[in-house]
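We emphasize that the prediction below concerns an isolated chain of 438 residues; any contacts that depend on oligomerization or on bound cofactors are therefore not represented. The input was used exactly as deposited, without trimming of termini.
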Amino acid sequence: MRRLFGLLCLMVVGCTADVENNKRNNGVTEPSNTMATVAGVDCDDNVCVLSGVITENFTMTADNVYLLRGGVFIGDDLSENTLTIEPGTTIYGESNSDGMLIVRRNAKILAEGTVDEPIVFTSSKNLGSRTRGDWGGLILNGNAPINSCGDQEFCEAQGEGGTGLYGGNDPDDDSGVLKYVRIEFAGTLVSPDNELNGLALQGVGANTTLDFVQIHMNADDGVEFFGGNANIKHLVVSGVGDDALDWTDGWQGNAQYVVLQQHLDAGDNGIEADNNGENNIVTPMSNPTLANMTIIGSGGASSDIGALLREGTGAFIANSLIYGWGDASIDIDGDATWANADLGDLAMVGTLVDSDTNFKIDDGEPQLVEDWFYAEDSNEEGGFALIDPQNQASPNFLPTEIINGAVFVDDSFFDDVSFIGAMGDEDWTLGWTAYPEA
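Result of the prediction step, given as a token string:
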């Protein structure tokens, strides 16, 4: 198995530290006893290969190397299994087998890193050779409501890329914790028009904790909410190949402190928001509340729309900055979406836009996006500057001066802050985020 460890060191990054650990322990450091007899986890010489279905509780420890081989499923969709991941642990998705991690319904992931020791999911390829789509990604399946079955009280669906069933009737479902977690170089192409997201939240409930999460260089969307009621704070999405933040199928959660940064070479929209593509008026309607976002376009040829609101979505968007988008800052698309705007179920307040073209004009729409935007006195065009938001290697998303004037968001999830955008005078991305090109 030591030869296998050596081979894996050629495949994955971070083996140097494990080799040094082995040296300090006379060449051998035994893997954690919590994994020694777990089916689907094969550990030896500090290298653990995960595969298939794992139906026992176990812990990933920072002194081991972990490789996801193919689709790795935690739980059997019924049992309450728990995967615990220690701070500082690195998990590699095997590129050759499209490695991915799927946490099934009723199972939990407890991945709590720290500022100094984040938990990292990354590619098995060597530094300098990594790219978007090297491996699958992280998928959480929950029991919260979705709308892809029509107006049924209980609805479940099959996840993209064979990632299992999700959905149910428990809005307060708990899929565990992701805190100080980075997910990089994921989003493999499973089949034509079927790429995986960096983090897919499929029917995930409100008692799940999502805080300080970065998705970097994913091939498809960064984070996508498929229905559910999950909430998230302190989210960074950087350099993804499609949309940074996507929602569909009835997402009704919350988000605060969100940075979405597009790179020059790829990317579509900052936000792409749908209710349901087949039936725009089906319930439960997508209707999240989002505050303190900084949505940064590259300004390049691939840069599309900062916030594309379509297919019947509702939303309440507050205290956000939208900057540098090549096509438009905001677009509202479709009769059902405009109907939500007329009813007050699609609203934007305390938001500043600053692009060459701020509002998309589509033929046949009932009104101008510009008129909808300026119907709120708290919305403005221009009037802000950020330090270095489009720097791809070492960005700085802080404002040159604190941008005050935030509108109060009446929900206990949200911190009551006076500033607009993802940051005031504190850069909460320091220490745990990273922006490698390969």
